[in-house]
Write a structure and sequence with these properties.
Distance between the termini: 38 Å
Number of domains: 2
Strand order of the largest sheet: 3-4-2-1-5-6-7-10-9-8
Helix content: 40-55%
Number of strands: 16
Oligomer: single chain
Shape: globular
CATH class of the largest domain: Alpha Beta
Bound molecules: 6-O-phosphono-beta-D-fructofuranose
Radius of gyration: 23 Å
Mean pLDDT: 94
CATH superfamily of the largest domain: Glycogen Phosphorylase B
Largest sheet: 10 strands, mixed
Number of helices: 17
Strand content: 15-25%
Amino acid sequence: MPRLVVVSNRVSIPDPAAKTAAGGLAVALKDVLESHRGLWFGWSGKVAAQPSLHPTIIEKGSVQYALMDLSSQDRQEYYSGFANRALWPTMHYRIGLSEFSRADYAGYLRVNRSFARALAGLVRPDDVIWVHDYHLIPLASELRQLGLQNRIGYFHHIPWPSPEVLGTLPGSNDLLRAMMDYDLVGVQTDRDADNLRRNLVQEIGATPRRSDLVELGDKRMRIKGFPVGIDVEGFQGGALRAGSHRLVRQAREALDSRSLIMAVDRLDYSKGIPERMEAFERFLINNPEQRGRVTFLQVAPTSRADVPEYAQLSRQVNETLGRINGDLGEPGWVPIHYTTSAYPRSVLGALFRLSRVGLVTPLRDGMNLVAKEYVVAQDPADPGVLILSKFAGAAQQLGEALIVNPSDKVEVADAIRDALGMSLSERIRRWRPMMATLKTCDVRWWADAFMRELTRRTPAPAEREAREHAAPPA
Ligand code: F6P
């Protein structure tokens, strides 16, 4: 079995003393790395005055971790700048929020080049390399320029937009050309795969060979949807154990007999938080008998706070929240509870289990694992109802949720009303097939499927043409 090298912007090193459990993705990658005696390479999360050109190596069991520090200029231009002020909004269809700067783009390419140089010194000829996410799109191209011929795969965790949207970003065609240095590109949904293929064909003249294969000159790349899953047993177990956690007990007491509606997101404009609060407001206006009988809890840990658009969102959320609670609150009842604290995942799971409705309404999302966690945390005998945005990748798998357009406040308000009034038999009827899908397509299934595809040989053009022109079997 070849050794696996995982590369991602953030690296999750197992820490037995950590207060919050590692995310499902970190658990799955650790599993695959252990079974391949692998190496995980990426940013240490630290800024150093004079970062070394060589990674710090940490050994944990059979897995090695190789960590790079960044200078503050590199962090600013590569991470906060190009990745999170230009690529992130564009990939989430928010071209009005995209702030391109040549200096940031140069910093993004510079960090990718320096990561490639540091990584090349650690890679063996038969290693398989798996790169993650939009921070590192040019990495394979940089590694190829250093002479590496290893199999290299890339997984894109966020949406891939249409050519009309991505084409607005300066430099996007160079990124598309750089993609062609991967052997396999995984995206979350068939819609993302179709968009990526159309970008490559329309913008840089790649030739589609089959629905999952494109060529440009002598380069061939496969594109496939691999919907990322969650660690079903781990999350379920955590949610059950945390049922007696102080925070969950307090929430249960504070709720009294009220129904709980829950939402959990990073504080990010792609998640539609102010729009969701306004939809809840619309629900209370349209259904006045529900006032005082329902509480909406929005957990939104602060994220990327040094990026101006995130600071602006934080102000907008605070204003919307204050206005709605001021207009509709009553002595003894606050309609929306809001916190930017990051709670342990198990506590969130227990709160999901306590809630009657999970409100997952991003304006655009690659997958949205919170939707999956909400389903998995439910009591099979009395499950809550998931309301899910049609623009989350998860909607492709969780069609039994109440699917809504997150920008249509009346539609979301009506879905909240329907969810709160839904019979037990209907709730169970909807929950069971979603749970079955999530159990089958869990995070280990996802990692195994990607690795199987990456290590599979792509036929060379001559071999393929011969096969395509061969006479059909008699
Ligand atoms: O979902 C995309 C993503 O970049 C993940 O890779 C990451 O875990 C998450 O968003 C949080 O973002 P950041 O690493 O910028 O805090």
